[in-house]
Amino acid sequence: MSRRAVVIGGSVAGLLAAAALSRSVDEVTVIDRDELPDGPRPRRRLPQARHAHVLLPSGRDAVEELLPGADVRKHLLAAGAREEPFSGTLDFGPRGWSRRRPTADDALLTCCSRDLFDWTLRDAVVRTTRVTIRRGEAVALLGSSGRVTGARVVTDGGEAELGADLVVDASGRGSRAEQWLDALGVGGIRTDEVDAGLVCASRVFRVPPGARAFPLTRVGAEPSDGLPGRSGMLVPVEDDRWLVTLMGTRGGEPPADPADFLSFALDLRDPVIGRLISRAEPLGEVSVSRRTANRRRRFEKAALPEGLVVLGDAVATYNPVHWQGMSVAALGARALDRRLRAGDVNAPGFARGVQRAAARSVSAAFALGSSQDLWFPDVVGRAPSLADGILRRGLGRMERVAASSPPVYEALRAVTMLEDGRGRLLQPRLLLATLRGPVTKPSAEPPLTPQESAFLGAVGSPCH
Ligand SMILES: Cc1cc2nc3c(=O)[nH]c(=O)nc-3n(C[C@H](O)[C@H](O)[C@H](O)COP(=O)(O)OP(=O)(O)OC[C@H]3O[C@@H](n4cnc5c(N)ncnc54)[C@H](O)[C@@H]3O)c2cc1C
């Protein structure tokens, strides 16, 4: 019998879920309410696309696995995306600058604009799969509390009912899955939230002459100093541009005014990003986003009907400073793919199995983002517990030991890159190594190459 699937949302989670489905389902339709451009150009209803995005290696590998033969990585690099070795980045953490030690098999972070990434994915799906992408807005689920049988969609031609053996909700952070399920008589979906009131402000700059080799640079906040967390990142993207995102938790929000953007960057715990952009030509205005809470809806714990899977930001959103959302979306689609290889979409428990499998990377990402945000002032959600405090101190020590212990470094890297769950950090030999030390004090000065030093030296210390 012919099988059909409807995917709501044609962004990272939706496109990759559709790619997975197209291998075993006869007809796969992606519905997106936005006008999707025919090229790497901005679109209206993806506000986060104006901010810096970095793709983790785990996300990149999942994309390659889900779109074999599409050469997404090759196309991204050909269009100017950069791959930054993780340990070659300039990273100012809570205690100072991390050491840089690029190695041949280092984790590579993919840096490009969301416009380029989304277009490359869309193009790959269109080129290499049988997926149909249609414009339309999903407004309801069809079916009953026992089984979802399709979605009601509003298109230019009016309202239509699209029947499906499986509906994937990949409609992002604004997903109305809970309301739609409620209308079918399914409730009780728990939400976990840690909202530090993070605001992101971003601006694009042309890379100034002599600064092209500058790597991905991140200046983090210190969650335990009792002050609002202010942080920033400078991401080299295609066409010799830097995409700079400044962030601040409640009470320390970055400005929308271009004149204050530089001052905010110079006032971070280290002024390096401000110094770099002080010499760079801005290309456009400052874009601000306010909806950045760590929020997780526990669909995997609810009695969801058969025939419905929720993926990507529709399940959970995270503090963007850890670069996780797109990779979690890709890993969720990979979980769907693996279940499809093992069984039919109509098999009893199929959708619940996918939801549970997809929850693993959601848990890892949510734990990382929320465990740090808990400590900022005026957080909405839960208060830090004794266990949170112990965990934080333990992780802090692990980070300092990692500078001189390759196994501890490797384990921390794998967990933050979503290659492994946090359980890996509890391995006895790693705990022992953490207790024994030695503890390396991070440097107060950025570990610059001579070329980078020369550039920053020429910039000097700009005034606010
Ligand atoms: C400031 C900021 C910075 C970030 N930085 C990073 C980063 O560095 N690395 C990273 O991995 N992640 C980052 N993220 C997270 C990342 O943007 C998301 O995790 C990712 O976009 C999730 O993809 P998605 O497909 O689930 O949802 P989205 O990308 O939000 O897409 C949802 C899609 O659904 C469509 N849609 C919505 N409702 C409907 C409907 N009813 N009917 C039809 N279509 C609908 C929308 O038009 C859209 O195309 C960042 C987020 C923010 C806010």
Principal-axes shape call: globular
Structural class: alpha+beta
Q: Which strand-content bin applies to the residues?
A: 15-25%
Helix content: 25-40%
Top-tier CATH class of the domain at 4-83 and 114-193 and 294-369: Alpha Beta
**Strand segment count:** 23
Mean pLDDT: 93
Structure commentary:
This protein has helices spanning 12-21, 57-66, 72-78, 114-128, 177-183, 258-266, 272-277, 325-342, 350-373, 386-402, 406-416, 428-436, 450-459; strands at 4-8, 27-32, 54-55, 82-85, 90-93, 96-97, 108-111, 132-135, 137-143, 148-155, 158-163, 166-169, 191-195, 199-206, 217-219, 230-237, 241-248, 281-282, 287-289, 294-297, 308-310, 316-317, 380-381. The protein has a domain at 4-83 and 114-193 and 294-369: FAD/NAD(P)-binding domain, CATH 3.50.50.60. The strands form five sheets. Strands 5, 6, 14, 15, 16, 17, 18 and 19 form an eight-stranded mixed beta sheet that branches. A five-stranded parallel beta sheet has the order 8-2-1-12-21. With 464 residues, it is α+β, with helices and mostly antiparallel strands. It has 13 helices and 23 strands. Bound molecules: flavin-adenine dinucleotide. Flavin-adenine dinucleotide binds next to helix 1, strand 2, strand 3, strand 9 and helix 8.
Set out the fold topology:
Elements: E1 4-8, H1 12-21, E2 27-32, E3 54-55, H2 57-66, H3 72-78, E4 82-85, E5 90-93, E6 96-97, E7 108-111, H4 114-128, E8 132-135, E9 137-143, E10 148-155, E11 158-163, E12 166-169, H5 177-183, E13 191-195, E14 199-206, E15 217-219, E16 230-237, E17 241-248, H6 258-266, H7 272-277, E18 281-282, E19 287-289, E20 294-297, E21 308-310, E22 316-317, H8 325-342, H9 350-373, E23 380-381, H10 386-402, H11 406-416, H12 428-436, H13 450-459
Parallel strand pairs: 1-2, 1-12, 2-8, 5-15, 12-21
Antiparallel strand pairs: 3-7, 4-7, 5-6, 9-10, 10-11, 13-20, 13-23, 14-17, 14-18, 14-19, 15-16, 16-17, 20-22
The structure holds flavin-adenine dinucleotide.
Flavin-adenine dinucleotide binds at residues 8-14, 31-34, 45-46, 48, 51-55, 137-138, 170-174, 200, 289, 292, 312-314, 320, 323-327, 329.
